[in-house]
């Protein structure tokens, strides 16, 4: 039996500079210049005692330019790459970028599925791969992460302290920008709901500290959103699995229960996976997931896990980088036992049709279904609210992800037409927010947020220039709660 770690509530400390600031001015101090000139200026300013700015032709540049998970972003070539070692370097870089008015991108864990989100063609890339420190302060009972940390490394590094964070189920800390769905979300809300304080570098290089109570409270809120332990199900059981998922999403009020489902289409085969976790006893686990446990399965793995094991469940199965990745997202309300699950079935059928049609051209096609339960939504409200702010009803975010074979650099017209057809026909419940971490750039995700108008007003305030917006730096801190029982896992 494993002992569960103490819990966490995330606090983002996005800078290590303790300076008092007046209201930041967003006026540029220079005329626009080229990216190459801006890079040269950064080189002369930052490359004093160490190499922070690198250019094409160097090994470090090649490693940074090709480190993104999505092959579409590996193809982009920035004019230079900034590898900041501390918050001061980021402030200098952002100030220079802002004044020069050049394009830029930021890369932390590098796992974004959207083209252009973590690399840039001809602009300046800021890579946080040199900022990977993790620390625990027992006096403040807080954990600090730098932005280049991978969640699996963070969890493993903190295990000896008996603490962990409401971190992502996969890869890096960038998930917090989209709210962040964690294995701990049903009991502790979206990852961003646990923020306590944010040190933020604005687009002009100014650093401000935002909390729920100070003058940057609007910015604080806007940033709250703006492996074999699983079951493998035969295709004949997929309708039963979808039904159980819709019912769980509707009925679950227990924050200790966590569910994630996925369907993998590889060649002519479809594999259904159900990841079920419960922070409690075997008996309550069996009761909570009884509908799932009654479904015939090809493979079952049941047993107690530490949170380290839980957090590594998906990391262990993460596919290699370098594939061209495509994502779209939808949202559906949970369903009671007497309601039709037709929207779930139609989503599955559309995905299956697309995957079968293009099976010879795809490495794989997946849909992942993440229940957002009432407990998760309620916790977000109790902690000041977030910009998603859905109705107090369970719903699911559904991601459709496609990977093209290694070496394929362009999406064919037929595949793109198939994706458009899927998205146009897939059911979406308009009352619920999409997950911005799992969508296509063509989807107007922010418009699905209840606080959309608040977001627009806040970004207009802090970035009236309209030049991308905020750059968040760095550290995630977490308040502690005790896990008094063990996490039971299954999967049927």
TrEMBL record:
Q: Which domain of life, per UniProt? A: Eukaryota
Entries under Gene3D superfamilies matching the protein = 3.30.465.10
User: Domain FAD-binding PCMH-type: where?
Assistant: 74-243
> What UniProt keywords apply to this chain's record, in alphabetical order?
FAD, Flavoprotein, Oxidoreductase, Signal
Any signal peptide, and if so, which residues? 1-22
Instruction: Please provide, alphabetically and separated by semicolons, the GO molecular function terms listed in this UniProt record.
Output: FAD binding; oxidoreductase activity
Determine if Signal is one of this entry's keywords: yes
The cross-references to Pfam families, in alphabetical order and at most eight, read: FAD_binding_4
Q: Which family does it belong to?
A: Belongs to the oxygen-dependent FAD-linked oxidoreductase family.
* Name this protein carries in UniProt: FAD-binding domain-containing protein
Query: Which source organism does the UniProt entry give?
Result: Dendrothele bispora (strain CBS 962.96)
Upper taxonomic classification of the species?
Eukaryota, Fungi, Dikarya, Basidiomycota, Agaricomycotina
């Amino acid at each position: 039996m494993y002992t569960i770690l103490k819990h966490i509530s995330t606090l983002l400390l996005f800078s290590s500079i303790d300076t008092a600031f007046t209201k930041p001015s967003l006026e540029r101090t220079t005329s626009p210049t080229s990216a190459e000139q801006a890079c040269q200026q950064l080189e002369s300013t930052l490359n004093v005692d160490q190499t922070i700015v690198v250019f094409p032709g160097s090994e470090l540049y090649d490693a940074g330019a090709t480190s993104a998970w999505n092959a579409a972003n590996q193809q982009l070539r920035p004019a230079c790459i900034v590898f900041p070692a501390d918050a001061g370097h980021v402030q200098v870089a952002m100030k220079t970028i802002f004044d020069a008015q050049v394009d830029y991108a930021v890369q932390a864990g590098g796992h974004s599925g959207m083209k252009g989100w973590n690399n840039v063609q001809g602009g300046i890339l800021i890579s946080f791969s040199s900022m990977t420190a993790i620390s625990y302060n027992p006096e403040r009972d807080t954990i600090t992460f730098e932005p280049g940390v991978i969640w699996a490394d963070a969890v493993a590094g903190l295990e000896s302290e008996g603490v962990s964070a409401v971190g992502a189920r996969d890869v890096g800390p960038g998930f917090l920008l989209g709210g962040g769905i964690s294995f701990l979300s049903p009991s502790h809300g979206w990852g961003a709901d646990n923020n306590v304080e944010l040190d933020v570098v604005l687009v002009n290089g100014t650093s401000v500290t935002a909390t729920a109570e100070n003058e940057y409270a609007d910015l604080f809120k806007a940033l709250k959103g703006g492996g074999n332990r699983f079951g493998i199900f035969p295709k004949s059981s997929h309708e039963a699995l979808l039904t159980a998922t819709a019912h769980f999403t509707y009925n679950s009020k227990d924050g200790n229960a966590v569910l994630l489902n996925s369907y993998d289409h590889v060649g002519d085969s479809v594999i259904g996976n159900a990841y079920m976790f419960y922070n409690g006893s075997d008996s309550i686990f069996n009761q909570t997931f009884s509908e799932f446990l009654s479904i015939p399965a090809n493979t079952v793995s049941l047993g107690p896990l530490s949170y380290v094991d839980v957090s590594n469940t998906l990391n262990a199965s993460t596919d290699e980088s370098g594939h061209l990745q495509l994502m779209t997202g939808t949202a559906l309300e949970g369903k009671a036992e007497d309601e039709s699950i037709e929207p779930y079935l139609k989503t599955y059928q559309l995905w299956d049709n697309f995957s079968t049609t293009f099976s010879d051209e795809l490495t794989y096609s997946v849909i992942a279904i993440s229940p957002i339960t009432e407990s998760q939504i309620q916790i977000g409200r109790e902690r000041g609210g977030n910009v998603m702010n859905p109705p107090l009803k369970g719903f699911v975010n559904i991601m459709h992800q496609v990977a093209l074979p290694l070496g394929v650099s362009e999406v064919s017209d037929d595949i793109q037409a198939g994706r458009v057809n899927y998205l146009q026909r897939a059911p979406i419940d308009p009352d619920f927010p999409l997950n911005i971490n799992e969508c296509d750039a063509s989807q107007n995700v922010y418009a699905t947020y209840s606080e959309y108008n608040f977001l627009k007003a806040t970004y207009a305030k802090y970035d009236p220039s309209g030049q991308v917006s905020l750059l968040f730096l760095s550290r995630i801190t977490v308040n502690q709660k005790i896990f008094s029982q063990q996490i039971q896992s299954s999967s049927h």
